[in-house]
Amino acid sequence: MSAVPDTMRFDLRVIASKIEPGSRVLDLGCGSGDLLAWLAENKQVIGSGVEQDKTKAALCISRGLSVVQGDMNEEVDDYPDKCFDYVILSQTLQQVWEPARLLYSLSRIGRRFIVSFPNFGHYSIRLQLLLKGMAPKSEELPYNWYDTPNIRVITLKDFRRFARDVGYRIVDEIAVKTDADTGSGSVISRWTDLRASYGIFIIEKQT
Amino acid sequence: MNQTIETHLQVGSAGTSEKKLFTFGEPPGELTLESGARLGPITIAYETWGELSPARDNAVLVAHAFSGDSHAAGYYKDDPPGAKPGWWDSLIGPGKGLDTDRCFVICANILGGCSGSTGPSSINPRTGRPYGPDFPMMTIGDIVETQKALLDHLGISSLLAVIGGSVGGMQVLEWCVRYPEMVRAAIPVATTMRHSALAIAFNEVARQSIMADPLWNRGNYYDSEPPHLGLAVARMIGHVTYLSDEALRRKFGRRLQDRERVGYGFDVDFQVESYLRHQGSKFVHRFDANSLLYITKAADYFDLVERRPPARSIRDLTGAATRFLVISYTSDWLYPTYQARELVKALKRVGLNVSFCEIEADCGHDAFLIPDKRLGSLVGGFLDNVRRS
Questions:
Q1: Of A62, A69, A80, the CB nearest to B381
Q2: CATH assignment of B202-295, among 3.30.2110.10, 1.10.1740.110, 2.60.40.10, 3.40.190.10
Q3: Which residues of B are less than 8 Å from A64 in CB distance?
Q4: pLDDT band at residue B1, thresholds of 50, 70 and 90?
Q5: H or E segment to which residue B231 belongs
């Protein structure tokens, strides 16, 4: 198996490495399909995607991927129970109107689901609010309060608590530190709540 | 072959095809239609492009829309200079979405049509005269059965894909529920699982305009002057439903035809009136009024959701291996995108592998027939994926 290419976004590379070969995977917000294409090529994954953007969805289909153009919040409702091994929601949770409902759907249609999101508990964000008294911005969340698509702020700790409260078992938690200048990243294990730019959670619904 | 056609036959053209006829169902082996009526012999006119592979696994069936014919691509050998290529030439040919270097493409004129296949204008062998109103009511399912008979005749037991737009898309879906094991991939384009009241309403107005023409004579007009006026009006109505508000606005607006100011009369004032009259009068030379009645009725009857068992509905596709690519167009108000999404939803619910894309286009339902690279690249990429799996 070839290594996950450097050109792919770092959190996607981490996610790709966690998927077992031959799995059935649904990638929500699959963009131009880089992750799905890589998984199909290298892990013989049976992949599907959902993408809102018509041009990107068309690009996915043209490159031979199985993709539905539509709103993920609606599209997830129609899949049968447990019809995927993994459902991936990467860097979108902070933009979802009804996250609890969406995550429940993910747990219904997938044996496991993988969520990644920017960590709002990063020390630089905490310091900005404390010292400047203004809504924080970061490389991962670069918008102003009035034009941001990121309508939710989530810390790693928030998500852990949420998972515990609704009965999701965290199978794996990966904290990622990225360098915006080089685009490189690394997995970190110490002081993750403060240092991680992203969190990636692999979840199983407790039965 | 004349010079004009020669120059068209570069890379990208499907080349020349010839219309072939296949006849089956000679009495007493007539085809039993869904209504219970028996019809035979039945002749189906068809054309093919590309070569059938030795493994016989590269056949693609193209299903045409209600007024289409078997001439989906390329030219006929005896086409006059400047002749237009087949109706889906932008999609079918070497290197195109349906690549004739790799696929064996088949298109047949539908049962009930008037371009070589048996329909109401064909001779009824029992009377020696055209069927007219004695032609039995037929369904989309009956059309598919005649296509199945043709494929049996050609020795094809598996289809790489079935593709079609509009009423052609209904045939695609009917193929999937009748012969799921034969269809590896299905591409329904600008179509629906069942007509909305709006679509039925437009069809009914078209039918009424024919039946209100005294020359229709209850369908018996083959020895006399045909109901061209009624048929032309039916086409004008149809044509409006194939366009869109945007397309009409862009194409015509309120521009006047050959005049400076309105004429305060019932002659043509506006360009759009002139255009529709032209479309109507052009259509009567290539289409039969009774065919329009029968085919629109078959389309209105088509319903993939509510069916009386043992007829198979969309829900019976559970476990099928057929892969779907559903395509709709933003400005199609005859079969709007919400209907394509209902189809996608139904396919997902039974666990089928489905891709869906809505294409941005302002030209209405007809968009699927207008040359556009996006359709070709979707179809080509999708079929590559099907071949790999």
A1: A62
A2: 1.10.1740.110
A3: 381-382, 384-385, 388
A4: very low
A5: helix B228-242
